[in-house]
Amino acid sequence: MFDNNVFKKDSCKNTVVDGKVVGFELETYITYYRAIPLSMVNEIAVKVDGVEVPREAITCSAEGKDWFTLDEMTTVTTYKWEYDVPLKIRVAQEGGLSKGEHDVELTVETRTAYIPIPIHGVNSRKVTIA
To answer: Which of 97, 103, 98, 13 is nearest to 50 (CA)?
Structure first.
């Protein structure tokens, strides 16, 4: 139902730190109608051109300041992912994405307090890195 929220259009870009490309990032909106703590994010997976990104390379931030690995997020209850604010996802990858077009797939799975099964959303986009 909320699969269009899974991968925010035009959000994929390389991450530059101190003038060096250290990876890439993208954004997702929650696939639910209200906020949840980061601890209720079951899984985030990224594929680029059909190749799955290692889970250990992914970090997330609810506000763009404090970043957590997926394992750390299981205990993060003080940061909420708000309904209308995108969750920022970074992938550590030296050199980031090469220039040109890529097929990027994002999977997001969350839990809620009163729905007994996880909410699973997947969306793919063609992105162009300049």
So the answer is: 103
Distances (CA, A) of 100 to 33, 44, 57, 59, 129: 35, 24, 22, 24, 5
pLDDT in tens, the chain (130 residues): 566 789 999 999 999 999 999 999 999 999 888 899 999 999 999 999 999 999 999 999 999 999 999 999 999 999 999 988 999 999 999 999 999 999 999 999 999 878 888 999 999 999 999 8
Cα separation, 108 vs 41, whole angstroms: 8
Query: Residue 58's closest CA among 45, 47, 49?
Result: 45
Rounded CA separation 108/28 (Å): 8
The ranges assigned to domains in the chain are 3-129
Q: What is the CATH number of domain 3-129?
A: 2.60.40
pTM comes to 0.93
Per the document, the length of the chain is 130
Half-sphere exposure of 10 (CA within 13 A, CB side): 0
